[in-house]
């Protein structure tokens, strides 16, 4: 496993992180969740990503139990706050009240005294940015959080936050967590250039497009049994990508992966890691074999010719519009 700095910070993260959205506390039983976490650890993954909202807070509990007994200093544990974790008006968003309450819940569920990275899961239009950033800074001073970052914020939102942090002397954001894959490149036009200039890096989600880039979903065929597309929760998220034209083009990536001696999942993960502003690709898994497959992308460097062939195959199914980075227009 190779390691990269998180933004301009001194923190190192594993190039491949393990994330537990959809899976822990929901799609997979606890034994499978534990087996995936231990496969990740065995393969040298040190960075783990979760969120308070995943599986209605159960995902953090499952991860906390799975990591119990592992030397804390050998791990980087990332979580997030914003989406609702309860029914009340203050059980959501980025107010000082919810941030302070949510972090305590996350620490309890994760069985740790601190998280390495605390991320604003979306931009909260109903809370002054100063309030959120001061609360984040207070958590850093309290030692509950070591670094702060955001997820799915636009370049403009990140720039506004950095300006306030610099004026107020708050801890600066070190990372952005966007969706990024060879199919979804919306960060390339605005978010990445700003982050390169300002010392933030990307920790990217769904690098395998939720399984689509493994090539296991065939055009015109039912989804394979046990896959995310057949899971009641997962199918709602992956559905958008199960388009026959897109799936047909993904099949055409197979010779490119084969020529390099890579699996399709490894090609997809290596593709995001080729971007120097990406610190880590967060992969999900329902089975330990998937983790063992995906981690082998660490250290693989795709050449220009491979990148060109991928672009040629995918053509206009690639999404590049920076306007697709969006947070809810009102607090959920
Ligand atoms: N910040 C955000 O808003 C946000 C949003 C989404 C995700 N995330 C983070 O990013 C992480 C990863 O997201 P993701 O789970 O969508 O990532 P992904 O790695 O693109 O997809 C993972 C899923 O693809 C399938 N898969 C993975 N490797 C495979 C392989 N080698 N062969 C066949 N199938 C394979 C598995 O599903 P099946 O076996 O069920 O098919 C697995 O659960 C999340 O856990 C979370 O930490 C963040």
TrEMBL record:
Pfam families named in the record: Aldo_ket_red (PF00248)
Organism: Sphaerimonospora cavernae
Keyword Protein biosynthesis included in the entry's annotation: no
Family, as annotated: Belongs to the shaker potassium channel beta subunit family.
Boundaries of every NADP-dependent oxidoreductase domain copy: 15-313
The UniProt record lists the keyword Oxidoreductase: yes
Organism domain of life: Bacteria
Keywords noted in UniProt: NADP, Oxidoreductase
Protein name: Aldo/keto reductase family protein
């Amino acid at each position: 496993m190779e390691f990269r700095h998180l933004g301009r910070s001194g923190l190192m993260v594993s190039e491949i992180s393990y994330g537990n959205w959809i899976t822990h506390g929901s799609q997979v039983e606890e034994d499978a969740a534990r087996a995936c976490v231990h496969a990740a650890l065995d393969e040298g993954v040190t960075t783990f990503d979760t969120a308070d909202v995943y599986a209605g807070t159960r995902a953090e509990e499952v991860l906390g139990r799975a990591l119990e007994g592992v030397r804390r200093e050998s791990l980087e544990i990332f979580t997030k706050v914003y989406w609702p974790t309860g029914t009340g008006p203050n059980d959501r968003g980025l107010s000082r009240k919810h941030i302070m309450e949510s972090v305590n819940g996350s620490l309890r569920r994760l069985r740790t005294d601190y998280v390495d990275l605390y991320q604003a899961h979306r931009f909260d239009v109903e809370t002054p940015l100063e309030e959120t950033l001061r609360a984040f800074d207070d958590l850093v001073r309290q030692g509950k959080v070591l670094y702060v970052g955001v997820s799915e914020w636009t370049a403009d939102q990140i720039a506004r936050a950095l300006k306030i942090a610099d004026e107020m002397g708050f801890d600066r954001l070190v990372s952005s967590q966007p969706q990024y894959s060879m199919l979804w490149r919306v960060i390339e036009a605005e978010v990445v250039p700003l982050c390169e200039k300002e010392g933030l890096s990307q920790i990217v989600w769904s690098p395998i497009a939720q399984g689509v880039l493994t090539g296991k979903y065939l055009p015109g065929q039912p989804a394979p049994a046990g896959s995310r597309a057949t899971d009641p929760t997962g199918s709602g998220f992956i559905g958008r990508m199960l388009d026959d034209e897109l799936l047909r083009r993904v099949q055409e990536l197979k010779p490119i992966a084969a020529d390099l001696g890579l699996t399709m999942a490894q090609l997809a993960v290596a593709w995001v890691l080729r971007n120097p502003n990406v610190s880590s690709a967060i992969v999900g898994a329902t089975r330990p074999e998937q983790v063992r497959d995906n981690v082998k992308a660490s250290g693989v460097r795709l050449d220009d010719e491979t990148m060109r062939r991928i672009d040629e195959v995918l053509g206009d199914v690639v999404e590049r519009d920076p306007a697709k980075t969006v947070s809810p227009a009102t607090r959920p």
